[in-house]
Specification:
5% strand, 530 residues
Length: 530
Amino acid sequence: MSDRFTDDSKFSLEQLREDELDLDKKASLVDTETDIDYKQTAGLIWRCLYLLRFYWQRFAVVLSMEWIMTAVGTAIFPWAGKVLVDHVVLGEPLPEDGKGYPAFLLPVIEFLVGQSALAILSWLAVWTVVGIAIKVVWGYVHDLIEARMQHSLLHMVRSRLFESMRLLPITQLDNQPIGDSIFRAMHDVSALPSVVRLVVQVAGWSLVTFIVAVLTMLSAYPDSPLVVLLAVGAMPVFVLVTAPFSRMIRRRTQAMVAAGTVFVSTTEEGMDNIQAVQSLGANEIEKERFARTSANSFRRERYVILANNLVVKLGETTGQFLFWAFMLYVLGKIIVGELTPGDYVVILGYFRAMSDPAGALAWLWIGLQEPTARGRRVFAMLDMEQEREVGDQLLPTVTEGVAFQNVGFVYPDGRRALTDVSFEAKLGEIVALAGPTGAGKTTLAYLIPRYHIASEGQISIDGHDVKDLTIDSLRGQITYVFQETETLAESIADNIRYGKSDATIEDIERVARVVGIHDFISELPDGYDT
């Protein structure tokens, strides 16, 4: 792999983009539309959210638990600081009319009126311990339900993705590296719950926190609307600062996952061909190839981290300016006596409570770019045209044989493999096809079970055109012995049984005798269970 980004050559944005496009081709030749616009991004986000219809009940429970805990915590906890500062530390008496406190806390204030500072501190300690215990238990139950929902969602999408890749036409599978397929199923799928969490759960938490904080502040400080305006003002400022970087983050993420898939493919190829590597003395070459793709994968990941950190720091800097402007405003109110030190604690807490969700909502679009870029790879594979079932007839048990009549085949890229091929292969005959590499022998064999569909002519089995037969009935009577040995990490019996799961041990031994390996297997210590 020759990616100039891994060399020490002079860096340029044009070179970076060229290398990213080259990475896309190396990662997969069937998924080529990798650069998406804002409309396509929004469509992908909607598709992720639409998956929730399968688990809406569990998701409703998760969302309700989050919102309840957020609303209660936001509404109550900051006021404990005011009580502690004003009425315990400073010793100020609690107002009998509850002035300066929200309406829903008036029963608590009435209960504490007239009590000593030590008693108030004791009640605050008890309520704090109870609140923390409830929050821990509540959060534990919430996390269990959320984890199960996310795992169910991942399992469903992974299963669909595997089925979709399995049903791709042979011409597509030939251009789809195994490493890329594994990367999509293992890593990219995990981005879908991330999209759901950001759009619904984080946005929901932000809105609930913001609404509760605003209503509580307006209830306690109806004469200080500027606090609310300062917190709200953080949102559009964050958006203006971060929005221009969204496409850059999507592109860098796509390049990062493409480099990751190339690395996985390189690892898989190196291990799969280890005998050839060692026999040809190419260990150093393979080591260098592995090191190059690994280094490139790490570099791409660091680039995504750098891009995200750049945007985060810009947002944090903006937030600091807003925070200090707010601090000066509140300190001025305390100096002139309009607010107490305890009010400062409450207002500061609520400003944080409002500015955090404002920043989260503003950051939402940027935060969605990385998981959306990964999610695009999942949906791109799910959307690929699968092998079509063009026939509707069942193939009876074969009694005669196969016939080719003026058959020709042209690959999708325009390369012609076969021209005017005609012959018959009767049942019981052994027919050999000889020719140099690339003459079309494998292509011709793939036409019988309809891995490829003939461009011209007709292929028939017992007089039935293979185009009119169902795939299952056609391939159920065809077996291939491939040039390379393909085995599963199972017993010998399970490998022979593969494709006919109900085969008995007698059936397995009969097949083994036919191909002449029964005696060899029987001499193994575990026999067919090896």
